[in-house]
């Protein structure tokens, strides 16, 4: 059986839709359920719902063979996975945002769910910063003077707008990626291929 790790939320819904459209159905699946594992009706695959940041961990350790996760999360992860395709959905940007531009007369403090991406970005630009790792609602940090700025995902831009924050730099763009465990890709290719094709519908892998 092939295990597919899905990042809870919108990416999971889209990924699941593609599997179902290709005939890999999960009639037990109920979006209201708190169940975390669902087997396909043909018992060839199972989907497991994990936190986005955990998808690369499950896939790199071979617990899941395949995963769907945002590029933002992959950039933050140190797991070793094969990135097979850009699925194009879940498009967003990773940006430096704040109430005002970062101070230049002292070391700026940055809050983020993406400390590694932040560190790499500021290092590459020769800017010395202190980074505070947060788990969510990162926009609060500049509003409450916890940080001078944030590195965070901007999708619709609504969260920034409603909190009077601005984008100062786009670090990179992100979208959902299809990832696979390198070993599974070698030794289970025959079983994995239909699942990869289902998820990556219309695109060649
Ligand atoms: C993400 C991100 C922003 C928001 C951006 O948070 O961290 O807060 O979405 O989306 P928008 O541009 O469409 O407003 P998420 O919803 O994942 O919740 P979190 O803050 O608890 O991490």
Mind sketching the topology for me?
Blueprint: E1 2-7, H1 10-21, E2 37-39, E3 45-50, H2 55-60, E4 66-70, H3 71-76, E5 82-86, E6 92-98, E7 109-112, H4 115-124, E8 130-133, H5 140-143, E9 149-154, H6 158-162, E10 166-174, E11 176-180, H7 182-187, H8 189-199
Parallel strand pairs: 1-3, 1-4, 7-8, 7-9
Antiparallel strand pairs: 2-3, 4-11, 5-11, 6-9, 6-10
Protein described:
This protein has 205 residues and is an alpha/beta fold. The chain folds into two domains: 2-90 and 176-200, D-Maltodextrin-Binding Protein, domain 2 (3-Layer(aba) Sandwich); 92-174, 3-Layer(aba) Sandwich (D-Maltodextrin-Binding Protein, domain 2). It contains eight helices and eleven strands. It has helices spanning 10-21, 55-60, 71-76, 115-124, 140-143, 158-162, 182-187, 189-199, and strands at 2-7, 37-39, 45-50, 66-70, 82-86, 92-98, 109-112, 130-133, 149-154, 166-174, 176-180. The strands form two sheets. It has a six-stranded mixed beta sheet with strand order 2-3-1-4-11-5. Strands 8-7-9-6-10 form a five-stranded mixed beta sheet. A hairpin with a 5-residue loop joins strand 2 and strand 3. It starts with a strand and ends in a 6-residue tail after the last helix. The relative contact order is 0.22. The structure holds 1-O-pyrophosphono-5-O-phosphono-alpha-D-ribofuranose (PRP). The site of 1-O-pyrophosphono-5-O-phosphono-alpha-D-ribofuranose has 12 residues, from strand 9 and helix 6.
């Amino acid at each position: 059986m092939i295990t597919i790790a899905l990042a809870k939320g919108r990416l999971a819904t889209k990924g699941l839709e593609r599997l179902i459209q290709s005939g890999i159905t999960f009639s037990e699946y109920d979006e209201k359920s708190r169940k975390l594992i669902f087997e396909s009706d043909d018992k060839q695959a199972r989907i497991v719902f994990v936190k986005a940041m955990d998808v690369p961990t499950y896939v790199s350790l071979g617990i899941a063979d395949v995963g769907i996760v945002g590029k933002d999360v992959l950039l933050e992860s140190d797991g070793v996975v094969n990135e097979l395709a850009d699925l194009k959905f879940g498009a967003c940007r990773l940006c430096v945002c704040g109430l005002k531009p970062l101070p230049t007369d002292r070391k700026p403090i940055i809050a983020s769910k993406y400390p590694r991406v932040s560190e790499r970005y500021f290092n590459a630009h020769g800017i010395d910063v202190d980074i505070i790792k947060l788990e969510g609602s990162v926009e609060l940090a500049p509003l409450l003077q916890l940080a001078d700025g944030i590195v965070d995902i901007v999708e619709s831009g609504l969260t920034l707008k409603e909190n009077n924050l601005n984008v100062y730099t786009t670090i990179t763009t992100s979208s959902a990626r299809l990832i696979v465990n390198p070993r599974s890709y070698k030794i289970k290719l025959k079983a994995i291929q239909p699942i990869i094709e289902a998820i990556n519908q219309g695109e060649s892998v």
